[in-house]
Amino acid sequence: MLEKLPDAIGHALHDLRAGLDKIVFNTLGLRAGMATIEVSSLAFADHAPMPGRYTADGEGVSPPLAWRLLPPEASTVVLLVEDADSPTPNPLVHAIVVDLPTRDGTLAEAAMPSAEQDGAGLHMGRNSYLQGAWLPPDPPPGHGVHRYAFQVFALRDGPGFSETPGRDELIDRLRERAIASGLLIGTFERPDGTIPDREAETVPAQLVG
Questions:
Q1: pLDDT tens for residues 89-111?
Q2: Which of 47, 105, 162, 174 is the most buried (most CB within 10 A)?
Q3: Alpha carbon distance 73, 179 (integer Å)
Q4: Domain coverage including residue 40
Q5: Which CATH number do you get for residue 160?
Q6: Each residue of 108-144: pLDDT tens digit?
Q7: What is the pTM of this model?
Q8: Contact criterion met (CB below 8 Å) for 153 and 175
């Protein structure tokens, strides 16, 4: 989508980033006195590059994920994926999944719906493009490394979610019900001059990420 933007745009926006301090994991103070969930992926290590197949330069499917050490009192689990380095006031939301099982669990590759995949029937919330789907990483060329935060939260009993919850609704529920959290960071960078052999599409400039 954004791979054919001029490199100059990425360079001009280089210092404009939401910031890792603004991802939900870091803004709600959930870790103070709370249990820690271990989050991992078979596809990439923490703070390591994500393979291209999970990005807009490849198939764009969602990566495999796993989590463990959930507290026994958890009644549901949610996943939030945000781009900490999007040139937007708040991190760009790439996926929301709610009502996951309350046990050590996994999401297989392509479990989330995307442009090419129907997914595994998960209860999806809205990403920043207002879609109930996985939004593949798609940073502007030359903008530098982007950090994608895969955040897993365990919630106690309480009010449920709407059919397609957004980031604000998710934050409200986390404030009321969160009892544990975990974080995995995957990175992706589109260097200068990287133009995959795909037809460009028009995307709102304020939603780059």
A1: 999 999 999 999 988 889 999 99
A2: 174
A3: 9
A4: 7-192
A5: 3.90.280.10
A6: 999 999 988 999 999 999 999 999 999 999 998 888 9
A7: 0.85
A8: no
